[in-house]
Amino acid sequence: MNIIDGKKIAEKIKNNLAKEIYDLIQVGNRRPSLAIVLVGDRSDSKLYVSLKEKSAKEVGIDTSLYLLNENDSEDVFMDTINFLNQDDNVDGILIQLPLPKKFNTNKILQNINPEKDVDGFCTGRSSEILSPVLMAIRESLTNVKKDFKNTKAFLFYNSEIFRDETKVFLKKNDILLDSVSSDDFDQKRKEKRSLELLQTKTREYDILISAVGSPRFIKKEFLSDGMTIIDVGITKEGEKVFGDVDFEDVKKMDLNITPVPGGVGPMTVACVLKNTLIAYKLRQNK
Questions:
Q1: C-alpha torsion sign, points 9, 232, 99, 104
Q2: Where's the Tetrahydrofolate dehydrogenase/cyclohydrolase NAD(P)-binding domain (predicted)?
Q3: For labeling, which of 38, 127, 182, 281 is most exposed (least CB within 10 Å)?
Q4: Average pLDDT of 193-205?
Q5: Residue 282 included in any domain
C-alpha cells in the first residue's frame, strides 16, 4: 500500500506560498488577507477554523475571524458578507461549513463576491479559482506519478454540485467519471444482489473517490489491487476521526490511498490559502 501523504503535500504547497508572499512583501506590497466567518459553537468547526488560521499565519496571510450566533438572522449574515465584499483589504472570504439548518447555505455562498470566493462555490468566480477539494484530488493523482489519461473514476457523493464539478474537472484530464449518490447507495446496500453488483462494478475502475461522510463503509470488496483511492469523507466519533474507507479492512491491498486523517484535509486547507493568494493577485492586477 502506498500512502498519499496529504500533510507532506500540504507543507510543500505552503512552503511555496510562503516564499511567494515573502517576495511580494519585500517589494512593498501588503499581505494577502482572508476573512473567515464562523457561525455557532460547533467544536469541530472551531477546530477547523483554528487550523486554517494557524496555516495562514505560517505562510504570511492575515486572517480576520467574524463570529456569528446561531440565533442571528439571515439578514445579519448577509450584512456581514456584504461588508466583507466591499472591504478592499479583504482578498478572500471563507464561510466555515456546515451552517445551522435555519440558514439557506447556497443563498449565502452565492452572495459572496466571486472575486473573493476562495472555496470555489460561486458560479461567477475566476476560472483560476478551483474548489480546494478538486485541487486536493489533483494533487493526490499527481503524487501517484502515474499516467491517468484515458482512465475511469468512480465517485460516491452527497452533493450533485460536487459530482458535476468533479466530472468536468476529471474530463479535462481525460478521466471519465461514473458515480452513485449516497441515497442510491443506501437503497442498493439493502439488497445483497444489488450491493454485490455495485461492488463488482467499482472494482473495474482505476480511481475511486468517496465524499459521503459515512465512516468505514467502503470495504475491500469494492476495491481491486492497483487502484487509487481518494477519501474525502470525514466523520468524528468521540476523539477519533474516520474516513469513508475502512482502512483496517483494506490495508493489506496494493492501493494508492489518502488516509484519514492526514490526507485530503491538510491539502484542502493549503489549497484555500493558495486560492487566497490567487484572488489577491487577480485583484492587485485589475
A1: positive
A2: 196-282
A3: 127
A4: 97
A5: no
Residue that is last in its domain, among 116, 141, 161: 116
175 and 247 part of one domain: yes
State the greatest distance between any 2 C-alpha atoms of the chain, in Å, as a whole number.
65
What SS3 state is found at 278? helix
Q: Residues 83, 111: one domain?
A: yes
User: C-alpha angle with apex 164: 159 to 165, nearest 5 degrees?
Assistant: 100
**H helices of 156-263, where?**
160-172, 182-188, 192-202, 247-250
CA 145 to chain centre: 21
**Averaged confidence pLDDT in the chain:** 95
User: In this prediction, what percent of the chain has a pLDDT beyond 70?
Assistant: 100
Task: Give the chain's domain count.
Answer: 2
**85 and 139, same domain (yes or no):** no
Based on the fold, state whether residues 33 and 107 are members of the same structural domain: yes
Question: For residue 177, which of 167, 185, 164 has the smallest C-alpha distance?
Answer: 167
**pTM, 2 dp:** 0.92
Q: Which domain holds residue 236?
A: 132-265
**Which burial class, exposed, middle or buried, applies to 65 when counting CB atoms under 10 A from its CB (0-12, 13-18, 19+)?**
middle
pLDDT digits (tens, 9 = 90+) for 227-253: 999 999 988 888 888 999 999 999 999
**Are 22 and 53 spatial neighbours (Cβ–Cβ below 8 Å)?**
no
Contact 258, 264 (CB under 8 A): yes
Bridge partners (DSSP) listed for residue 264: none
The C-alpha cell at 177 is: 467519471
* 234 is an annotated ligand-binding site residue: yes
Bin 219: left if φ > 0, else alpha if -120 < ψ < 50, else beta: beta
Residues in a beta bridge with 68: 39
Q: Could you tell me the CATH number of the domain that includes residue 238?
A: 3.40.50.720
Residue 238, classed as helix, strand or coil, is coil
Residue 83 belongs to a domain with what CATH number?
A: 3.40.50.10860
